[in-house]
Structure formats: structure tokens, C-alpha cells
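Regression report. Comparing outputs from two consecutive submissions.

Submission 1:
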Amino acid sequence: MKLEANNYKPEEIIKIIREWCELTQKEFGKEVDIKESTIKNYEQGRRNYTFKTLMEISKECGVIITIEKKNKN
């Protein structure tokens, strides 16, 4: 599956990654070593995560993050 991050809010991206892993917030938190309450706050937009955190989560879940420059056309 592929997702264009520019079309989503940051909290939606974390939720999508978790759903791709087919895990509950509690299971996902254990998998990525982040408290369940923090995962909930990320998904509800109450707390921001860093790019470093996103990279660590992605690595743990087997998600590839690609940054692509858009042509100026």
C-alpha cells in the first residue's frame, strides 16, 4: 500500500501505520515501545511526534518512508 503524506494530518498518518500493522493502540504501543496513552494522544492530535519518532515507528513496522521532490510543472 502507498500513502501520500501531504494528503493527511500527522495524527492520521500514525493511525494508518498502526492499522496497516493490524494492531490495537495497546499492542502497537508495546511493539514500538511507546506508551498506549502516548499513541492515543498522537492519533487524537493532542500530542505531536517528531520525525525521528515517525522513522523509528516506521522501521519497527516495516513501513518505508520516501521523500520525493515534486516537479515545478
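Submission 2:
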Amino acid sequence: MDDPDDTINEISSHLPMPRLVARSWTLDLATAAFKLYGDPIAMRFMRPFYPLADLAAMRERLREIIERNDTYVGRMGSWPLFKRDTDAMVGVVLLKPLPESEKIEVGWHLLRTHWGHGYATEAGRAALVYGFEQLRLETIYAVVNPGNTPSIRVCQRLNMRHLGRTSDYYERELEFFLIDRKAFGNDDSREG
């Protein structure tokens, strides 16, 4: 197995962000992750999958995430985000296949204490750069709960095109967005 420090450096180098660092998940991050995934307010748009009930459930979910990340081709997955200056966990960014699909989604989840600082946009933009430049993807999608206005705004700031609603993923109706490589290369979604 790779040295964990090498994996951390590899993920961070692929997801360059001015204020944040992306790392690989480890089980010792369960307490920090539970502050996010156990928070009923932060996870209100993620029901019925979240919030998690306790730290034991978080550890089990992290095991599943780590195993799932290992199965993805092309270094996709989800990664915890930390502030560069304080090393505090901010949230999570993801770039992975939508359930039972070959379509790749970008997404983000943030701890409430870090809402409103532009971290979701920063992380989402980095994931798009990684997806288009490193993984050579042609199209990247996002799915957002219709009531999640802040995440819809992030998709708009990333210049993702709204396709309407879909019920194809996560057992609910969601707003459906996309951006393709050409549009990403020709617009200001690449800029901070």
C-alpha cells in the first residue's frame, strides 16, 4: 500500500486550492467527519442517508467510503478538506460516478461553521479542473436538492448549465446541472 503521506500529497497536488488542502480519508478522521455528517442541519438535504446517529456509524461509513474510493478508476472519490492555515476540517469535496451511472458528479459538503466563505466554490472549481485536465473527462454533472439554494448558487458560480430536474439518482427529485470540457475551458468558471 502507498505511504499515506504520499497519497495526501498526490490528492492535494491534483486539487490545487489557495485556502484548502484535500486529503485521503482515514479512519482517524471519524470524529471530525461526524461533526459534519452527524449534524442534522448541515445534512438536512442529504436525508435519508444522513445525518448519522453516532460515531460508530460514522466509522462504518468511513470504511465504506475508503473502500469505495479504492474501487474508482482514475483517482476519483471523495476527500476531506482542511484549511491550509489552521488544518481545521472544513468539509468534503467529491468527484465520483453518480449511482448506477457512468456520469461523473462533482459535489461538496461543508461544516456549518464554514458556510458563506466560498469554500464550496473553491473546492468545486478545483474538482472540475482535476476532472477535465487530469482525468480528461468530457462532461461533469451535479445534483442538488431543490431547496438547497446555496449549492444551486455554487453550481451557477461554476457556470454549470441547469438541465431541469431528475429523479434518476439518490431516490429523490434533484436539480440537475452539467458543464463540459469545452465550456469550462471557455468561461470564467476556472477563475477564482
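Expected: both submissions complete independently.
Actual: both completed, but the second showed a warning that disappeared on reload.
Relevant detail on submission 2: The first helix runs from residue 4 to 14.
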